[in-house]
Design brief:
The protein is α/β, with parallel strands linked by helices and 256 residues long. It has one domain: Vaccinia Virus protein VP39 (Rossmann fold, 3-Layer(aba) Sandwich). The protein contains seven helices and eleven strands. It has helices spanning 17-28, 42-54, 69-82, 101-110, 128-137, 154-164, 196-204; strands at residues 32-33, 36-37, 59-63, 92-97, 118-122, 144-148, 173-176, 212-214, 230-233, 241-244, 251-254. The strands form three sheets. Strands 5-4-3-6-7-9-8 form a seven-stranded mixed sheet, sandwiched between helices. The chain starts with 16 loop residues before the first helix and ends with a strand.
């Protein structure tokens, strides 16, 4: 949306919510971070800020790199939080995609030294060997946040949950992005894929998901591209001192 097309919110209060949603979806597909394409709602990024902090994550495993903008965003926020949490292992983003050529080029233009904090792994989420390669990159003692943002089909969503859910620690989160593709009223384009929410629902019905709970209450900013997609592994973070997570709403303990 160009400056000439922009309408302030007070001029749109009589607009239908669905029309507002579709305008926001169109806008977010053209968004960027540090000049690199990144298609994420600000509301969802704010939720990620809370999850990174309150689950003590120092590693983000991102399934689906695309241009690399979100990998850079996650890295920058992990590095910022590391100033306040020196007890945790080094911050790191591990991002998987079929072809990392474009992402490597774009990220290196912004940060030539990115490889110390961003690991771009070429591979297919459907291939179990990709999960093995990712797990080998996770520093010992790390706490991972896993983000599934690949092809948004039944198969890729199922494989992401099957191959990567084991990386989520007690109290940690797995976010299945873009379940909006399966809600008819939220679909922007007939070409959008389908299958995210059916795959997620089917996985939650299996014993493999027994340690997880769906957290609809984390969709608290009103608009999200990830309806029904926020999952949290039950349990606490072990340590000597307790604190209450005001956003996640779970009593957890800080690592010593």
């Amino acid at each position: 949306m160009t400056g000439a097309e922009f309408q302030p919110i007070e001029d749109r209060l009589d607009e239908r919510l669905r029309d507002y949603w579709l305008d926001r979806v169109r806008m977010h597909t053209q968004d960027s971070y540090a000049g690199i394409g990144m298609s994420k709602f600000p509301e969802d990024l704010r939720t990620y800020d809370h999850l990174l902090w309150e689950t003590d994550a120092n590693v983000v495993v991102e399934i689906g790199t695309q241009f690399g903008g979100s990998a850079l965003w996650f890295r920058d926020h992990l590095v910022a939080f590391a100033r306040y949490r020196p007890r945790l292992p080094r911050p790191l983003v591990i991002s998987l995609d079929l072809d990392q050529t474009t992402a490597r080029d774009l990220i290196s233009q912004v940060d030539p030294d990115y490889e110390s904090t961003i690991c771009l792994v070429p591979g297919d989420v459907r291939d179990a060997s990709s999960a093995i390669a990712i797990k080998q990159e996770v520093p010992p003692g790390s706490r991972c946040l896993v983000v599934e943002d690949s092809a948004h089909t039944y198969e890729t969503t199922s494989m992401a949950l099957s191959h990567f859910s084991s990386l989520v620690p007690s109290g940690g989160c797995f976010v299945v992005e873009d379940g909006c593709v399966d809600i008819e009223e939220m679909r922007l384009d007939d070409a959008w894929p389908r299958g995210v929410l059916p795959a997620l629902d089917d996985w939650l019905a299996t014993s493999a998901s027994s340690g997880f709970e769906r957290r609809r209450d984390l969709e608290r900013y009103g608009l999200t591209c990830h309806p029904r997609g926020y999952l949290q592994r039950k349990g606490v973070i072990r340590a000597a001192e307790d604190r209450y997570c005001t956003f996640c709403g779970l009593r957890m303990a800080l690592r010593s």
